[in-house]
Every structure is written in structure tokens, then in C-alpha cells.
């Protein structure tokens, strides 16, 4: 059924972008305040890093739950419940004195946040014309960029002014306010396929993970995000060291530079129609590789600033190109599930990087981190090229 909101796609996209931004921000709240978490709970900074690892892992895994459901459950309901549960989790994080309880609250916060972008990625193809899909995907990805940056910067600045617990309560209030904005979203569920049983829905989604045409693209995102989030996560620890010696406010402030790269996602969504998804995707990966090199050798705030701007620009210029390639290979009724599976693999890679690269940081430091992350970025580009080659070859073969 068509709703009034669905007749106003511009307003719907605007609300979708804002809610996505805030939900994604909640996953990254712990990244700039590892030192404050460690001091509050009497733990090491290494232990404090688990707060982000657990939150991001829960966020990634939750896409397997919410992604398939996003093709069958109303957007308004899914997003509203996710934000409401996120607000309760953030408030719990502020009030709990037990570290294990705090980690559990972070996990629930990450999982609930996934409901919002899962719903919005399913919504975009339903309200966009065929020539707008790349642009609409780009806008939601741009909102995610803003959310990542906002989460890192706002939490650092709020903690400097209100303390860690006060900052968590402030974030809970913002999430609660955002629940009201979901009333502006359409209340549509997917069509006839929404009558499928849960077992059938999830079995079909699991089969997507085995489809070679999709698996190559999922692996491309996995390698890209391993490198991207690996660098960004350990950059927090790098900035605590000389010659920077930043506190949470400094890390929060410099993270705002990622906002400048937000133009990359919607712009690349338009460029896909002109130059093709392969060229746009490889261009974004090239920017990421240059950004990692810049951050690897940076010894000044200017060097770090340029590197941060470029890594956000490159990653989120590449993403619309991959989303478009995925959307071209699945039935419209399953695009929400396919998009969410891609996000699951991307974010799962970032979570894995946070955990796996810990010993690398201890033994090899920043040079080893950036070298490994540059390597995974190169592998991502090679895999994207192989996907394009195989796809062209399959099309050229007679039926």
C-alpha cells in the first residue's frame, strides 16, 4: 500500500539519512574514549578496546537478523524499535558499575543500531527510480560516514565536558528523541513474500552467502573494511602516543575531518552511471591506499588530517559502486537482505581487524598495522577486478 510518506521521496530520504546517521554513531561511541573507559572501570586500555570490538561485532552480526526481515517488516517499526532499544542500552552503559555489564550494554547497543540502516538500505530501492538507485544508496552511505565521524568526535567532546557517564546519558537522550522522527517514515512492508516463514527467509539469505557472483563482492567489502577500520581503530592508540599525545577531546576534534568526505558517497553514486561501477570502485580503493600511506608516515596534525579525510573519502566513494553491483544481481524483493549481508561482511571485517590486529600493534606498532591494512586494500582491488572479468566472461558466453 502506498503511504503519504512514500509519495515524498525527498523528505523520506532525508529522515532515513538522519536516523541512519544517529544509529551508526552509537556503534562508534567508545572509539575515542578508551582511556576514560579504562580509568572508570580500572582496566587497561587494551581491555577497554573490547568495548568497541564487542559493539561492532554485535552490529555486524545483527545484520544477518535484521537484513532479511527488512524485506518483510515495516521500515517505521524496525527503525523505531532499534532506536528505542539503543537508547535503553546507552542509558544502561551510563549507570552500570560492573565492567562486564557495561560490555553487555555495548553489545546490545551495537546490535540494536543495525536495525536502522538495515531498514533504510531495503527502503531505498523501493522509493527510487532506476536511475536514482546509486544516488540514494550513496546518500545513505554518506549518512553512515557522518555517523561514524559523529560518534567518534561527539563522544570525545562530550566526555571532556560531561565525563564518561554524562556523555552516555546525553547519547541515550538523542537516541530517544530520534524515535519520534521515525513517524515520518513509510509504514510499508514488503509484498507477498512477507508471508514466508522465518526459516524459509533465513535459509534463502544463507544461500546468498554461497552464490559466487555475490560472494566475490562480499569478499571485496570484507578486505576493504579490514584495512579501513583496522587503521581507524588503531589510529586512536597512535594519537595517544608522541608526537601527538592527544586526549579524548583532541581525538574527537580531529575525527570531525571525516565529515568533509561525506560528499564522496553521493557523488560516486552519480558517477557510477557515467563511468561504470568498476572504475568508480577502483578509484575509491586507490584513494584508500594513498590515505593509509599518508597516515603511516604522518608526523604532524596536518598529515593525520589529510590521511583521515582521504580514507573516509575513498572508502565511501567505493561503497555505492559495490552496492549497485549487488543490486543488479538479486531479485528486487531480496535487495534488503543482500545489502545487509554485504554490510555484515564489511563490519565483521572491521570487528575482526580490531581483535586480530591487537597482537600486531603490541609487537610491530603502527608501521605493521598500516602495512597489513594496505595489503588488504590492494587485495580488495584485485578481487573487484576479477569480479568484473568473470562477470563479463559469463555474459559473453552463449546461453
UniProtKB/TrEMBL annotation:
Entry's transmembrane regions: 12-30, 50-66, 78-96, 102-124, 136-155, 167-185, 217-237, 243-263, 275-298, 304-327, 339-362, 368-390
All copies of domain Major facilitator superfamily (MFS) profile, residue ranges: 12-389
Alphabetical keyword list: Cell membrane, Membrane, Transmembrane, Transmembrane helix, Transport
Entry-linked Gene3D superfamilies: MFS general substrate transporter like domains
Signal peptide: none
Membrane topology designation: Multi-pass membrane protein
Compartmental location: Cell membrane
Predominant cellular place of this UniProt entry's protein: membrane
Pfam families documented for this protein: MFS_1
Family note: Belongs to the major facilitator superfamily.
Protein name: MFS transporter
